[in-house]
Amino acid sequence: MEKNPIISDDPMIFKMVKRRSTKSMFRCFCFLLLMFMFFSGCLCIGSGTILAGQSLFSNQTIISKDGKFELGFFAPGNASNFYVGIWYKNIPARTVVWVANRNNPIPQSSHSNSRLAMSEGNLYLYANSVTIWAAETSNASEAVILDTGNFVLRNASGIIWQSFDYPTDTWLPGASVGFRGFSNTEMKLISWRNPEDPGIGAYSLGMELNGGSELFINRNGSERRWRSGVWEGGAFPSLSRGSNFLNFTYVSRDDAVYLTYNVYNEGLISRIVIDFLGQLRLLAWSEASQVWILYETQPSNACQQYALCGPNAICDIRNSPTCGCLVGFVPRVRQEWDLFDFSSGCVRTRPLQCASENADFIKVSSIRLPANPESLEIRRRNICRIVCSVNCTCHAYADNGAGGCLLFNGDLLDLERLSSNSSAGGDLYVRMDPVALPGKGNRSFVLPLALAVSITAGILVSCFCLCYLRRKLKSKASHGAHQNLLLLDLNSNGTAYNKHNSVRNGNGQENNNQYELPIFNFSSIVAATNDFSITNKLGEGGFGPVYKGELLNKQFVAVKRLSRRSGQGLEEFRNETELIAKLQHRNLVGILGCCIEKDEKILVYEYMPNKSLDFFLFDATKKEVLDWTRRVHIIEGIAQGLLYLHHYSRLRIVHRDLKASNILLDAEMNPKISDFGMARIFGGNDSQANTKRIVGTYGYMSPEYAMEGLFSVKSDVFAFGVLMLEIISGKKNAGFHGSDCLSLLGHAWNLWEHDRVLELVDPILDVSCSRPLRYIQIGLLCVQDRPADRPLISDVAAMLNNEQTALASPHHPAYTAGRTLANANPRESKVELCSINNMTVSLMEAR
Ligand SMILES: *[C@@H]1O[C@H](CO)[C@@H](O)[C@H](O)[C@H]1NC(C)=O
Ligand SMILES: *[C@@H]1O[C@H](CO)[C@@H](O)[C@H](O)[C@H]1NC(C)=O
Ligand SMILES: *[C@@H]1O[C@H](CO)[C@@H](O)[C@H](O)[C@H]1NC(C)=O
Ligand SMILES: *[C@@H]1O[C@H](CO)[C@@H](O)[C@H](O)[C@H]1NC(C)=O
Ligand SMILES: *[C@@H]1O[C@H](CO)[C@@H](O)[C@H](O)[C@H]1NC(C)=O
């Protein structure tokens, strides 16, 4: 077949004509040509371009600008059918890289009468005026074969259609395989039927939705034949032999997931093909020897075939038989002579019970990791094991080497034992119930007698256990199963978050009787707090350290790990916690759940992004955030929270450790009281009583509480008064060094008596009027020495709400004149009033 190549370097067709003609002939020809163009509107084909209105006839081709690729009509091999395709211009044995009409060949009879025409913005392939293939875009102004081998339709705005989006069996450098445009366009290679028929063949090479960065060869669409393994740093371990001249790029965006590759040396001609037998081939052209050199072919051996050995088996090409079971597994189908059917794979010697989450994991080294991983990006190290062990569907895990985890659910497929120096290998950790470990009786060959004996014994024992277990399980079931903290969703967790409903209804009765406190398993708490890492620590409270926990959905919780000396039983602790967790109010920190396990008692709270009040109040610069309005809002919020605890909750909680560091601030700087009910959770007595344990913090403790261990709602009111004065003055009570070693209370009282009390107000506050006066007076009323003189928190709330309420005149506060801690109780004279010690006293045994 004759071809009329039109060299694309030529600006116009004239150059070619010039070579053959004299000047006059040229003029004549030119005239004829122009006439021809005028009437037929075609043939002006240069720079590898078909312009609007032009046609490429079957005796013509277009060539890319750099002369590398040629597009035209061809018949493969000895076939009599014709196709429009692209091949390498300079490679003698025609190597077709793209076919337009692969399923609709042009019969030989129509060949001379066929053309590729640009008309009305579309590209049509006509044979005898019948359209047999089209690229319909409506808006294209030209069709161009680019230097990359990409045949595009474009207009002034850019490319509208490209052959790279519709590859046949060849993947050229720069082209993509994967998904584009929200998965609407799948770019995958599909093999030819045979070397003389480019029609849709049986094998495809592409990516899969949810298949990660791997490449797959499938047969007949969905039957998986091979997978590449995960793309890593520009290469696939299974295609490593091309890595010195090309690299792969994996792109994952919201609207596209694809792989592309690029060849370092632009002069090198290379391609990836899926051939009609289902083999992936990576080839590069050797200019010197004028042959294609095969760098890689896959699948390259039996073990490379996808899941050859079936589930839970390992393929090892050096072994005979090639397939073997993972430790802890036996062949699913046992035949005579203990041979087994490879493809049916292996099953566990005993099914996973997942009775406890203390899964054991067996490490299998140097292995091609199983297919279908679920990958989890976690910035923390060493927690894949924990994440896997808390979910029974996770049968194995591996570290992905980049701080993330690969989790494998269910059966493990397509494992191959690799030589230990293979870069494609990884370590897999396979879940085992503790009993199924080797050496603990997984040998199934037993004497019949022994079998009979053990069965009888087993039945007896089971009968015994069953009754016991049933009772045990019943009691356990009522408490609900342990939950995974990592999976907690704060937004959907109505139980812990319905407090917003119960805020303003005044009497605040909890209406949710079905409330069940989530109990989290310890390992998920370890995972969330990065193993209680020091970097996650938020602070050290009176009852133990508090950590920031991160859930899988990136929400945060606060985890309080209670110190272990609580004398309370676990059941008691749980019941108390449940009661306390039911207290829900806008000004109380919500408890999300707890964990009681392995001597651990842990409470999980909602996380407060703005830390605690003391963090702002006692810091010279941060306190500027707290203007007067905010401070009033905080005082009122604390009063409301306390009012709820004292009067409206059904438990009548005395906080006993109210202080600035126990007032947490949420994102909008709303105050939330924390640590309420701790005394109770820790096994304190019910209401006002003498207690042998004193919980409290110097500076906030009422005198009767500090010295006699007497606590009541009035001791909380005292602490509230101290807090009020601190908030107004911006100074700590404990650690305040006024003249004569006066505490903040003494100082305030001094000013009050001398009518200079507005001097107490934090100088950074811009309050011109005398509003603070009323607040200081309420504060002083709360810190009066005698409990009987102090108002109830309900009175305080009324005074705060209603400016018309007349205020009593305060008596002198505690710790000033008259009674002091030191002289009232000489035995405790070591306690320094002026100490800056702000520690919580959590244990003070009475003798
Ligand atoms: C190419 O084919 C077209 C259409 O069949 C014909 O008009 C033209 O003369 C042919 N050109 C050559 C050089 O054969
Ligand atoms: C080019 O084609 C695109 C897509 O069909 C279209 O939106 C755009 O208006 C066209 N531009 C021109 C200059 O015709
Ligand atoms: C693929 O599908 C075709 C028709 O759907 C069928 O004839 C052929 O046997 C299948 N090939 C294999 C290997 O399953
Ligand atoms: C692949 O090679 C290109 C060109 O040499 C380079 O820009 C790119 O960063 C490489 N990609 C990777 C993942 O190494
Ligand atoms: C366990 O993992 C599977 C797969 O990721 C998930 O569908 C399931 O919800 C998980 N179950 C629990 C209890 O976390």
From TrEMBL:
Q: List the InterPro entries hit by this protein, alphabetically.
A: Bulb-type_lectin_dom, Bulb-type_lectin_dom_sf, Kinase-like_dom_sf, Pan_app, Prot_kinase_dom, S_locus_glycoprot_dom, Ser-Thr/Tyr_kinase_cat_dom, Ser/Thr_kinase_AS
**What's in the GO CC field?**
plasma membrane
Q: Where in the cell is it found?
A: Cell membrane
Concerning SUPFAM superfamilies, the annotation shows: alpha-D-mannose-specific plant lectins, Protein kinase-like (PK-like)
Membrane-crossing residues? 445-469
Q: Does the keyword DNA-binding apply?
A: no
**What name does this protein carry?**
Receptor-like serine/threonine-protein kinase
Which organism does this sequence originate in?
Sesamum alatum
